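Example record

The entry below shows one chain as it appears in the dataset: sequence first, then structure tokens.
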Amino acid sequence: MKHLKRALAGLAVLALLAGCGNDKTPNPMAAAVGAVAKTGMAQLKGKKAGAAPAAQAASPQDLRAELARAGQPVLLVSSKALGQTGFLTVSDSKGGVLTWATPDGATFSQRDGVLIQTRGLGFDLMSAQVPSVAQLRQVGTPYQRVYFFLGPDDQGTRRTYDCVTSMAGNESIEVLGHTHATTHITESCTRSSGGGKLTNEFWIEGPMIRQSRQWVSGGLGHIDFARVID
């Protein structure tokens, strides 16, 4: 996906980075991002007149290797609305739901890779009834999504959408230097009342969602997710 490739190009200015250790334990993800930031700065300095040759930027494969040293799942998240991209680790796992967290407490909860809740983003999705991966694969079979939001007056709002998926085809995608054979599914939803449409995209690899572009709320729009380390 082009949007994720652009996100990877901007890793030197990450604003979302989940801590996967404590003050006494080295953080492999922080080290990886720090290496990218340093080489990025070196390249910028190297372009100035009279500057020494800059160090070569870390490759996606090298960055993946650094992330893998954490020994835990890693999710790459990118939000155009927030202007932020970063690596997250799991803060909680319960009943098939993984919650991914940032250092400042913002969270993204997913059930089998499908977003069901966010917190700490400002325009949060309070909860959602969402399709399973199996339902997403049932192209042409209608189902409903239900979103719950909290308005400025602290009153809950419910939005129901009638949805159906279509097959975009089999695609080979690259996630941080690693190639994955996936099935690209597009989900189209129309609000049951009041008007409004939304779309989501999923790149499914076997039983899991490897990469996705999912709508969160009116204030945040879509957020991109990519599972880097399983």
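Notes for this example: Confidence is low (pLDDT under 50) at residues 2-49. The chain has four helices and 13 strands.
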